[in-house]
Amino acid sequence: MEAHDRKSHWENIYQNKPLEMVSWYQPTPETSLKLIHQFNLPKSAKIIDIGGGDSLLVDHLLELGYEDITVLDISHTSIERAKARLGSKADKVQWIITDILDFRPTEQYDFWHDRAAFHFLTEENDVDHYIETTGNAISRNGMMVIGTFSKLGPKKCSGINIKQYSEQTMTDRFKKYFEAIECFSVDHKTPFETIQNFVFCSFKRRNTISDNAKS
């Protein structure tokens, strides 16, 4: 799917479906919050949520006292919905509206979070581009969490093909820049009472000189 088509697709979804009726809806993103707690991130940590849209992770991060949060999403509508929900608290968040493949980070982040965005990249060049972006955008010894549909999960989401991953394929994909900390599977129950199996992997950015060389 071309970039323009991707944007139109997601704008249409957010314009026509309320938050509680999208398959990825979570009133409390328990898995993501558990991992953030395990990492013991300082409140000043620079956090970015990729494909965050109007998910509720940002609400919980603000409630926990995190001070430097960025939410990136391709959909202008999803960002505006999140801002409206947060009210004056939205001013405490940096909002970026762009396709992840067009994202050119101007700073480095201590924690990169992506639940269900990475698996929409099905072309090898796009996957490689995403990985290079993480290698440039995450600080040395920074942390990353990626959640995708597993081999037992759906093959499509919102009418779009996705790429399934296993714990091993996820680890292999990011090994150029990251050391895997742990991977595990978790079931997500959608608002429609269906089950989607995810694989979550947490990583630590390698602190080496050699990874500066792009292969």
Structure description:
- With 215 residues, the protein is α/β, with parallel strands linked by helices.
- The protein has 6 helices and 9 strands; from the N terminus they run ααβαβαββαβββαββ.
- It has helices at 3-16, 30-39, 57-63, 76-86, 124-137, 167-174; strands at residues 46-50, 68-73, 93-97, 109-115, 138-149, 156-157, 160-161, 178-189, 195-205.
- The protein has a 7-stranded mixed β-sheet with strand order 3-2-1-4-5-9-8, with helices on both faces. Strands 6-7 form a two-stranded antiparallel ribbon.
- A hairpin with a 5-residue loop joins β8 and β9 (195-205).
- The chain is globular, with a radius of gyration of 16 Å.
- The model is unreliable at 209-215 (pLDDT under 50).
